[in-house]
Amino acid sequence: MDFLTATPELLIVVAALAAGLIGGLGVARRRKGEDTDAPPRPRTKRDTLELPIEDDPEPGAADGAVLDEAPPTVPDTPESLVEAPTLTPRERFRQRLSRTRNVLGASVADLFGRGVTDEAWDGLEEALITADVGVTATMEIVEDLKRRSREEGATTPEAVVEMLKQELRAALGSADRSLGRATDEGPTVWLVTGVNGTGKTTTIGKLAAIEQREGRSLVLAAADTFRAAAADQLGIWAQRTGAHLVRKDEGADPASVAFESYTAAAERDADLLIVDTAGRLHNKRELMDELGKVKRVLEKQAGPLEETLLVLDATTGQNGISQARAFLEAVEVTGIALTKLDGSSKGGIVVAVQRELGLPVKLVGLGEEIDDLAPFDPDLFVDGLFAQL
Ligand code: GDP
Predict the structure, then answer these.
(1) Is 347 in the pocket of ligand 1 (CB under 6 A)?
(2) Quick check: CB of 201 below 6 Å from ligand 1?
(3) 218 neighbors 271 (Cβ within 8 angstroms)
(4) Who is most buried in 82, 115, 125, 237, counting CB within 10 A?
(5) pTM for this model (two decimals)
(6) How far is the CA of 108 from the centre of ligand 1 (A)?
(7) What is the pLDDT along the chain (389 residues), one digit of tens a residue?
(8) Is residue 132 lining ligand 1, measured as CB closer than 6 Å?
């Protein structure tokens, strides 16, 4: 509209409409808080923190910020809630580990069907290495099994499989695999890192679904600002899960997205903030600088982060482990999310990842659908590798 030629009457109408719209948004925002049935969370120190956006001199805070007016944190209608999963965790592990089971479970039964022979042990060694358990772990497992089989007189394929299950279970250890949560002060912050294509965004979306189903309110931050498509994709997950999305224009400073996302999460009294980051690896220095900055900005606001997860693609096997090392140098990682176990015959990588990186696998991706992320459960994993369906 050309304001120079508009009549005074028309300007009054436009002004009235704009005032109504702004007033309406204010009401809508207030209602979001009021409509929820959840009991109010006790106010904490962080709830009352002043987190200025406009006049804070944080890096890049002014470069074209676009805070999306997102869907309500608590969806208005039950239809928009994420539906309950159709498979039990055990069923999902069994169903989705079929590729590795074909390499490992099936071949072990075959090998030892003809007796506990040197050939059978060699075959087992090969099967474990093919399943990417890693050479050192394989040698140790097979040596242990040979000794036990002598000592315990295990001569049937069933007995060997049983012992192998125990060995694998022991190799997976008993680390704490729970995801950290803020104890006295919210929101909890989880930073998610990993090379592009490993499944970071999908993992965040699936995590958001789990959290939303458990009644937590969420903010998702699109701090991968190199690709607009990455933020778009995260936006779709935000819509599906009723999370609030914070994104900026392509090329904006990722640290400023992180900063504003924490501000938004604190202002909304959200339970959880999950931050997506870029996994572009031009060189290690660049990665370290960028991830380090995002983390520092968040820690300045939130204190130590509850989780810094590294997403690894199981189908890349040992290659993924060397990629992971670059990330470990850049940020202090607290746990691994291992994706695409369903698409890999190399599920043994779980053992290798933990051994070689010294970090617990906390989550596993078992497919592309919203429910296909599971807390890593060593018992269900080993069961899935040998289950006879
Ligand atoms: P990002 O670039 O790291 O954010 O990766 P995306 O989240 O975009 O995922 C890359 C591709 O991997 C997509 O096609 C996902 O659907 C797929 N993907 C992610 N996780 C899994 C998984 O656990 N299993 C399978 N089969 N595919 C997955």
Answers:
(1) no
(2) yes
(3) yes
(4) 237
(5) 0.80
(6) 31
(7) 444 344 444 444 444 444 444 433 333 333 333 333 333 333 333 332 222 222 333 443 333 333 444 443 433 433 445 677 788 999 999 999 999 998 887 778 788 888 889 999 999 999 999 999 999 999 999 999 999 999 988 888 889 999 999 999 999 999 999 999 998 777 999 999 999 899 999 999 999 999 999 999 999 999 999 888 999 999 999 999 999 999 999 999 999 999 999 999 999 999 999 999 988 766 777 877 889 999 999 999 999 999 999 999 999 988 888 888 888 988 899 999 999 999 999 999 999 999 999 999 999 999 999 999 999 999 999 999 998 76
(8) no
Domains in the chain (CATH in brackets) are 89-172 (1.20.120.140), 188-385 (3.40.50.300)
From 202, 232, 236, the mutation candidate for ligand 1 (largest count of ligand atoms within 8 A of CB) is 202
Q: Which atom of ligand 1 is nearest to the CA of 367?
A: 24
Instruction: Indicate whether residue 167 lines ligand 1 (CB < 6 A).
Output: no
- Is the beta carbon of 198 within 6 A of some atom in ligand 1? yes
Q: Which ligand 1 atom is the nearest neighbour of the CA of 365?
A: 23
